[in-house]
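ok new one. same drill as before - structure tokens go in, u give me an amino acid for every spot. 62 of them this time. try not to just spam alanines like last time pls lmao
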């Protein structure tokens, strides 16, 4: 019988609240890796941009 292993990535921030939400963004800082959903990805992106002084849209585009 064929077997297929499916890896599910869930948002670490949502998991802390007990919710299981699909992760779409990976955040890596100094070797620490976090999987985040769209909402948390955008939230942390905005927080980091704010902390680092990047407020322009051009600096945020990947
Ligand atoms: Zn989330």
């Amino acid at each position: 019988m064929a077997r297929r292993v499916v890896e599910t990535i869930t948002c670490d921030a949502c998991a802390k609240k007990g919710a299981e939400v699909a992760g779409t963004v990976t955040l890596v800082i100094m070797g620490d890796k976090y999987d985040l959903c769209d909402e948390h990805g955008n939230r942390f992106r905005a927080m980091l941009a704010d902390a680092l002084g990047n407020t322009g849209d051009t600096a945020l585009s990947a």
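Residues 11, 13-14, 21, 36-37, 39-40 surround zinc ion (CB under 6 Å). and btw The mean pLDDT is 88.
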